[in-house]
Amino acid sequence: KVIIGGQLVALMGFCAQPNLILDRLPDDTPWISGAFSSADAAKLYSLPHAAGKSWIKLKATAALTPQLRLPAFRKERVWPKVPESVAAQAATEVSEAPSSPEATAVDVRAVLGELWVTYLELDALPTDEDDFFELGGDSITGLDILSELESATGVAMDYQEIFDYPSFQALTMLIEQRLQAETPVGTEEKPSEKSLATLDSTGREVAYQALVQDLTHSKEAHPRTAGKILLTGGTGFLGAFLVHALLETTEASLVCLVRGEDDAAATRRFWDTYLGYFPDASEQTRVTIIAAELTQPDLGISSNAALSGVEEVYHCAATVSHFGKLEDSHQINVLGTKHLADWAVAHGVKVFHHCSTMAVGGLWVPGESSVAFYETDLNLGQEYHTHIYGSTKRQAEEYLRALAGTMRVHVYRLGNIGGATGSGLFQTNIEKHNIYLLLKAFATVGEVSPALAPMRLELSPVDRLVQAMLTLGNASQSALQTFHLFDHQPYTLAEIVSAFCHNGIDIPEVEDEVFFQHLEVISQDPVRGRDLVSLGIARYANAQMQEQEQTDITPRLEATHTLLAAQNQPWEYDRQAYLNTVIRYCIQKQFITAPQEQTVS
Questions:
Q1: β-bridge mates for residue 72, sequence order
Q2: Does residue 461 carry a pLDDT above 70?
């Protein structure tokens, strides 16, 4: 346990050499008390003088630099209870505690080496410095290796850890250290926890209903008058549709910041993407492309006259992976937002529109069995496990809230973005979207079972999201600045099966035993088995969450929908017709095909 801001906080499941911590902290860091759970733990970290003593002096873990996060030594990682500004942005490092082959009956180096040789098709055993991804590994191969490792060593690992420990040496040390742990995995007694704040559910609901009532009287907005709008993420799917909508509905000039070696390269990259979605675009003279790098404090931009007079900013650029390298996510989602917001304040921008995610609501709130997550909420003490997307986007929102007095800030928390309503048009890298991968898995398996009945899929049309963003951002009110935009009625298994049937693919229901036997057969197929990667990721994520404290977090959106209705732009649309269109588009693009024994009619 450590003391952070005068509060005793538990760092559950985390171990590190004290000298490693001390070496990484400034000399003027205040000292606090730290505890070892046992004398054996003290011996393990080369501190025999601490054996038998309950307390020793350590420097404050609250002052950890963003480049140091203590590694986990549990089957299911429990993230440290420290402020997100410290913990969630930290890059993972493996403890430098020495390991020896004699410490365990399993030769981890040999087992892992052979797995890398087999799955990465190497000619020789990997060296300590070899990187899994640099040798051609990917998330699918990583799932296979994690499964094999669990069978061979008994160590179950988080899916996230293939990103956190990519080098051969780091992964070997991590597994060895877990095998050396004195307490069997999953048997530790969990300390009692309380919510970081006592939530007054009744009072919060009363205040929320009062806000909803006020929004019913909102006046319809006048047409947008901004002369120049700056936009990031224009080469992404959402960004491209936002550019198109702004060109269609306003007279504004657009300036898009795009990654590229220079303006010419950035311009080619933007138009190659945009014209792929909208080949008949005719408003190209109103769009200026500037090469930029959001991770740099000055955005990587020298003085540019095209940026003069920007009145509004739409920030869509983000790293949207829930799993991946935390450092990469932090660079774009947190620092990128900070740098762009700082630029906007310095240049007198009037309105900053930020695309966020419903994932900021977190996975659970310690000490709470159920929590409503309103548009006006941000930090309820929610936790994210290994889901880096939600945690980094929350940090970005926290920074923007601190700037609210310098410019208007609108935050749009979006759900899963799907294809366009009428055509189903979707992003070119369709295979990167988890919901579409799950739909593909349904078609590959070709049947469902009662075990899947609780499954729900949330997907919202990109054009509806963009339309709602423009409407809400232009509304004449100041009571609500953060909005929830997602399908509040996720698709049930019956609706999913109906959409496939509508498109000529029959997916019958079979008994659970038959279904899982069929699933096992398909998983062994080198081609069709790869279509099940999303199910594999879901399995790992669900396994990690089984022993975590559960909270029923209910996102609320009545305020957002009330404001949309007051602007004569209600959210409702034909949900089943939309899902039918999504499936049809996937079939047309040959992303989804009928099971082997069927032919699409």
A1: 14
A2: yes
CB-side neighbour CA atoms (13 Å) of 218: 29
Among residues 88, 377, 401, 412, the alpha carbon closest in space to that of 233 is found at: 412
Report pLDDT digits (tens) over 286-306: 999 999 999 998 898 877 788
Cα(98)–Cα(110) distance, rounded to whole angstroms? Answer: 18
CB distance 156 to 138 below 8 Å: no
pTM attached to this predicted model:
0.70
Q: How far apart are CA 505 and CA 440, in angstroms?
A: 12
Compute the half-sphere exposure of residue 14: CA atoms within 13 Å on the CB side of its CA: 23
Tell me the DSSP string of 567-583.
TT------HHHHHHHHH
The single residue listed with the structure tokens 């999953």 is 186
The CA-atom distances, in angstroms, between 111 and each of 102, 106, 108, 150, 329 are: 15, 8, 5, 11, 31
Domains, the chain, in order of start with CATH, read 2-87 (no CATH), 101-180 (1.10.1200.10), 209-221+318-429+459-489+550-573 (3.40.50.720)
* Inter-residue contact 475 to 563 (CB < 8 Å): yes
| Six token digits for residue 390 | 């939600």
